[in-house]
Design brief:
Layout lengths: L7 E13 L2 E12 L5 E5 L4 H11 L9 E6 L4 E5 L1 E7 L14 H15 L3 H17 L2 E7 L4 H14 L2 E5 L1 E2 L13 H18 L6 E3 L2 E2 L7 H13 L5 E5 L3 H10 L2 H4 L6 H7 L7 E5 L5 H10 L2 E4 L1 H6 L7 H6 L4 E3 L11 H17 L9 H15 L17 E5 L1 E2 L17 E2 L5 H11 L5 E6 L2 E5 L2
Parallel strand pairs: 1-4, 6-7, 7-8, 8-10, 9-11, 12-13, 13-14, 14-15, 17-18
Antiparallel strand pairs: 1-2, 2-3, 5-16, 16-19, 19-20
The structure holds guanine and fe (iii) ion.
Enzyme class: hydrolase
Keywords: Hydrolase, Metal-binding, Zinc
Pathway: Purine metabolism; guanine degradation; xanthine from guanine: step 1/1
């Protein structure tokens, strides 16, 4: 398990981060100074190690001795620091099922594959095995912050929070609320029982990290069909009572699901203005600026307008939407409506633990939307990387903390290294040593980043830090 740095740190080399939706900023020969609490305290351009040590370290009042200062050099060819990824939607409890979905679609997938596995994680030993693995796996892919769904079970949900804290991954951890339309062996017994269990889990998670330095609880109504109106109302009341809590749920993923919501929550029953899915969450006080809505594949114009007006956020899950054939979400359209978007792996609706893969698939799915007639739907490399970092940070309400290399933000970062063809100039090609991306040496930096997005994987993720602490190192 990783240990806290507790020392000041100096990072040297190339730094790349998003500064606007369609813009990456490149800082070469730069130095980033991270204090012992993991906060970025200074960024200096055109700064070699000698100047950093002799001029800047003393100015910060730091000691330069080996026991006081850690120096990390990331300046090799095709090597750069990049902000850690934010996975805005994934089910830690479904990780053993990645890739196992056959030809299912959402509602039969839930019953066939998902509920039985989630229910089985009330076994603490099994939950420990699964949750430890998913945390380490996602960290190894550069995910420094994750918005997790656990299960209905309180002790194992709390265990997930404990494990995130000990492995050092920033996380939102949600106990899943569901009191209907699920098998009797896997659902809350009543709205009151669901709310009590939710409070219990929130209290525990807040107790292990009272300053919310890394871990925070998140209200998690699974989705409207699995929550009765009294439970939805109770969760809306809880959201109002605890205005610091984020909320996460699913919306408008699959057409049969949407029909089910209209049937279960006719507007006469909720007092909503229409029968729309977004209107149901809104009617229960669950559509807020702290709400993370996964999918949003089939939203209507008026729903997108409502979501934007409430400042709720959307987690785009292109891997899942493709795998279980939900549809192609229109990200450009959402962005133009003013809806903040990030990326989610949505394991195990999605089969990949990698946000880089989600970024690649977001680019690809946007091209399918474009082929459907909306040419401007295409997302660029810069745009999908923005969604993976800054956009995701905003989705989870941490845009002041993470997502870029700004003074005052935490050092949540990854060191990316691409494979250099013939690094010693001896005509030797070192096949696959550094993964699937070959650098020939003549590429521009934007070309290198594009090659990483389209062909990179965890072999390129050399080191990962959260809040200054080294949490993964590729051996
Ligand atoms: N809708 C309700 N529950 C789930 C889930 O676990 N995964 C996905 N993708 N959609 C859902
Ligand atoms: Fe999901």
């Amino acid at each position: 398990m990783a240990t806290p740095s507790k020392k000041d740190q100096l990072f040297l080399g190339s730094f790349i981060h998003s500064t606007k939706l369609d813009e990456l900023t490149y800082l070469h020969n730069a130095a980033v100074f991270v204090d012992a609490q993991g906060k970025i305290v200074h960024v200096e351009r055109d700064c070699d190690e000698q100047r950093a040590r002799e001029a800047l370290v003393p100015r910060l009042g730091w000691g330069a001795g080996e026991d006081e200062l850690v120096v990390v050099r990331g300046g090799g060819t095709g090597e750069f620091f990049f902000p850690g990824f934010v996975d805005t939607h994934l089910h830690a409890s479904q990780y053993p099922n990645v890739g196992i979905f056959g030809k299912s679609t959402l509602l039969d997938w839930l019953n066939t594959y998902t509920f039985p596995l989630e229910a089985s994680l009330s076994d603490q030993a099994k939950a420990r095995k699964v949750y430890s693995r998913v945390i380490r796996k996602t960290l190894s892919h550069g995910t420094t912050c994750a918005a997790y769904y656990a299960t209905v079970d309180v002790p194992s949900t709390n265990l997930l929070a404990d494990l995130c804290l000990s492995y050092g991954q920033r996380a939102l951890v949600g106990r899943v609320c569901m009191d209907q339309l699920a098998p009797s062996y896997y659902r809350d017994e009543s709205p009151a029982a669901s709310l009590a269990a939710t409070r219990e889990s929130i209290a525990y998670i807040e107790s292990i990290d009272p300053s919310r330095s890394l871990i925070r609880p998140v209200l998690t109504p699974r989705f409207a069909p699995s929550c009765s109106a009294p439970l939805m109302r109770g969760l809306g009341d809880l959201a109002a009572e605890m205005p610091h809590l984020p909320i996460q749920t699913h919306i408008s993923e699959n057409k049969n699901e949407i029909a089910l919501v209209a049937e279960l929550f006719p507007k006469a029953s909720t007092g909503a203005a229409d029968d729309s899915y977004a209107g149901v969450y809104d009617a229960f006080g669950l559509l807020t600026d702290r709400t993370i809505l996964a999918h949003g594949v089939h939203l209507s114009e008026s729903e997108a307008t409502l979501i934007a007006s409430r400042k709720a956020k959307v987690s785009h899950c292109p891997c899942s939407n493709s795998a279980i054939t939900s549809g192609a979400a229109r990200v450009r359209w959402l962005l133009e409506k003013g809806v903040v978007c990030g990326l989610g792996t949505d394991m195990s609706g999605g089969y990949s633990p990698s946000v880089l893969e989600a970024a690649r698939l977001a680019a690809l799915v946007s091209r399918h939307v474009a082929m459907g007639g909306d040419e401007k739907a295409k997302l660029s490399v810069e745009e999908v990387l923005y969604l993976a970092t800054r956009g995701g940070a905003e989705v989870v309400g941490l845009e002041d903390r993470v997502g870029g290399f700004e003074v005052g933000m935490d050092w949540d970062a990854q060191l990316v290294g691409l494979g250099v063809v013939d690094p010693l100039g001896e005509g030797v090609v070192d096949d696959q040593e550094d993964g699937n991306v070959d650098v020939f040496g003549w590429e521009t930096w934007p070309d290198l980043v594009a090659k990483w997005v389209y062909n990179g994987d965890d072999r390129n993720t050399k080191k990962v830090w959260v809040k200054g602490r080294l949490v993964h190192e590729r051996k």
